[in-house]
Amino acid sequence: MAIHVEGLVAIAFFYLLILFVGIWAAWKNKHSGEAQGTDRSETIMVGGRDIGLFVGGFTMTATWVGGGYINGTAEYVYLPDYGLAWAQAPFGYALSLVVGGLFFAKPMRSRGYVTMLDPFQQLYGKRMGGLLFIPALMGEIFWSAAILSALGATLSVIVDINIKMSVVISALIAIFYTLVGGLYSVAYTDVVQLFCIFVGLWISVPFALTNPAVSDITVTAVKQVYQSPWRGSVRKEDTWIWIDNFCLLMLGGIPWQVYFQRVLSASSATYAQVLSFLAAFGCLVMAVPSVLIGAIGASTDWNQTSYGTIPPKEKDEADMILPIVLQHLCPPFVSFFGLGAVSAAVMSSADSSILSASSMFARNIYQLAFRQSASDREIVWVMRITIFVFGGLATVMALVTGTVYGLWYLSSDLVYVIIFPQLLSVLFVKGTNTYGSVAAYLFGLVLRIGGGEPYLQLPPFIYYPGWTTEQRKHHITGEMEEIVIQKFPFKTVSMLASFLGNFAFSYLAKYLFESGKISHKYDFLDAVVSRHSGEIMDKTTLVTRGNNIGLSEMVSVKPRLSVTLAAAFTRRDTLPTETVEEEEEESSPDSSHHEEE
């Protein structure tokens, strides 16, 4: 396959466009937040909390709509054993944004948090915050690696160039403008990213639909022509797996820093909700061309195309159906424009995950757990270093790890079964404490890992009801192997067990310590007796907020050299006046657990 000059020109054009927009956004907003006295590090993480409706709507949509989203949707519609019925991402992530907007966006934004981990550290302490950082970090890094891996596959279809070099260049561009502009660069490049995807795919779809090799997709939706109907169906025995996967997308799509960095950058709590609803609509709209391309792939007689006689599914190239359709069913100038736009968009998708991971590390691990007296300049440099490190780590994994998708599947499951129930508890359930949080973490981890992960060849040690075995070809070695299929919705059950475990063990610990059945000196996590230790909050903050906690209940606190942790968690100067007044009437998540005491 020869190098296509037109393809290289198209890719170079779109890459330069996104790089230019990223640098321009950084330059345009370089003094943002200075007038309000906002720290530079916070501006990098959440902008100046002044992201408007237009840019905000695009960047919130881009939380999930990227290279993996459009490629994955087309792949599932195309696959004979799945079809549209199993392409759950569009509706799953759209509902995730709706649920996030209805229940999670307002409390998170109105309390002025900077990252998703802030409420965990505020309530459960810095050690628990560090534990919860692990699945959150894994999710972001593996997601970035999966995106870059998909990019390599897409580029291999367009031009016969060194794939490793193209992935490295793509990653360096994304890392560079994220280093320079932080969230502003991420947000403005998201606008270009979605525009590129929308225009690039919609230009290509009419040409692909009218190609002589493509049958009427309305016929192939319900009748078998070249393969089983692309509409797909869910067999009765697979119903619980379908429900489990849908709940994973809908609820597991909420507790991600990539989502909350957009929520927390909105100019108000109401705006954060509106942006979530707009993004839900955007998710559905952006999925339409991908669904059509998947349907076109399922309706094509590949004998009549330049692709060859063997269809993509039999070459194990179903995951590349979108670039294949654009390449072989569209005129060259259309396919290069579409593929160039999609490649640039895939590259741009990796930036927000890298920024999210570095934001959580710099703030919740480095600053709040180890260096509470760190200067703003020091935090900025830690962020810059970790953006480069995490970006490099994702790039290396994309190039050398054949199981990057398996790692992404497992880590996204862990976010669902560990972080989601804890987020639910910390925001809405009274009385949970660090002991319950640790128990919930272990419950979720053991129950999910116990179910195994076929993609990683991780055998189960818990066999849930309805399990069965299947012979499948391994995606790397090509050898047939016997794997265990869990038909039981064990991911959702693990999440519910984690949630109930948090509640039960929190109240058990509270009862045992407060009744005197266990001596107060054994409260080594300072979670019940010494509830408001220096690790979690400052005395004065609790008193000035008007909580009903007597001074005698609190242990003595050594004065801080820097701002108090409580002030670090809640930047009240960044909130609108009406929001502050509303919050005075509400108790903090920390205090609400002591209204009964």
Topology of helices and strands:
Elements: H1 5-28, H2 40-46, H3 53-61, H4 67-78, H5 89-110, H6 118-124, H7 126-158, H8 163-209, H9 217-220, H10 239-252, H11 257-265, H12 269-298, H13 321-329, H14 332-370, H15 376-400, H16 404-428, H17 434-450, E1 468-473, E2 480-485, H18 490-514, H19 539-544, H20 565-569, H21 577-585
Antiparallel strand pairs: 1-2
Helix pairs in contact: 1-8, 1-14, 2-8, 3-8, 3-12, 4-12, 5-10, 5-12, 6-7, 7-8, 7-14, 7-15, 7-16, 8-12, 8-14, 8-15, 11-12, 12-13, 13-14, 14-15, 16-17, 16-18, 17-18
Structure description:
Belongs to the sodium:solute symporter (SSF) (TC 2.A.21) family. Keywords: Glycoprotein, Ion transport, Membrane, Neurotransmitter biosynthesis, Sodium, Sodium transport, Symport, Transmembrane, Transmembrane helix, Transport. InterPro entries: Choline_transporter, Na/Glc_symporter_sf, Na/solute_symporter. Residues 579-588 have a biased composition (Acidic residues). It is a multi-pass membrane protein. Helix 3 (53-61) crosses helix 8 (163-209) and helix 7 packs antiparallel against helix 16 (404-428). With 597 residues, the chain is mainly α. Helix content is 63%, strand content 2%. A two-stranded antiparallel sheet has the order 1-2. The protein has helices at 5-28, 40-46, 53-61, 67-78, 89-110, 118-124, 126-158, 163-209, 217-220, 239-252, 257-265, 269-298, 321-329, 332-370, 376-400, 404-428, 434-450, 490-514, 539-544, 565-569, 577-585, and strands at residues 468-473, 480-485. The chain is globular. It is built from 21 helices and 2 strands. The longest helix is centred in the first third of the chain and has 47 residues, at 163-209. It has a domain at 429-543.
